[in-house]
Design brief:
The chain is of the alpha+beta class. The protein contains three helices and four strands. A hairpin with a 2-residue loop joins strand 1 and strand 2.
Length: about 160
């Protein structure tokens, strides 16, 4: 078992938290951007992730949630003596992480856009402006939003089935 460090952005900096993984393969890598794979004993690129583990670290690092996908990017440690099998596993995990990132970023963008359009159309049908006289954003009640959520999930059922296959 290997330890993984998780980073949480907070008040003035990063806070580290050790977490044990149940997998013995946690020294494998799943890169943050689908970029080039790291060489043995080196750390993969962390550009654009908003954090970078120290060079001397021998652990995987988990960053703060991505603002688009809500997934926590992982920078995996690449041991100097990584075997070909370990490398294949690390690269497979990197690809899986990149696919998850793309899927959830796209899904969440679609969700937010369709939700705004739904709210706008319902408010317009009621003859209500998007903002009231105080500038407060107008909202719909729970039952109306439940209609949206149900429709959205039904409409995206196939996408979720494909994602989970």
């Amino acid at each position: 078992m290997a330890a993984t460090r998780a980073l949480w952005g907070g008040g003035g900096g990063w806070y580290r938290h050790r977490r044990r993984l149940l997998s013995s393969s946690s020294s494998s890598s799943a890169g943050g951007g689908g970029g080039p794979t790291a060489e043995r004993g080196e750390r993969q690129e962390s550009a654009g992730l908003g954090f970078s583990p120290p060079a001397h670290s021998r652990n995987d690092w988990i960053g703060p949630p991505d603002k688009h996908s809500n997934l926590r990017p992982v920078i995996f440690y690449v041991p100097p003596e990584e075997s070909p099998l370990e490398r294949r596993l690390r690269e497979a995990r990197q690809e899986a992480q990149a696919c998850d990132q793309r899927f959830w970023a796209r899904h969440n963008r679609t969700f937010r856009q369709e939700k705004e359009e739904f709210i706008y159309s319902r408010l317009k049908a009621k003859g209500v402006e998007m903002r009231d006289e105080t500038g407060q954003k107008a909202t719909l009640n729970v039952e109306e939003m439940a209609d949206f959520y149900k429709d959205f999930l039904s409409k995206n059922f196939r996408k979720h089935m494909e994602y989970n296959r």
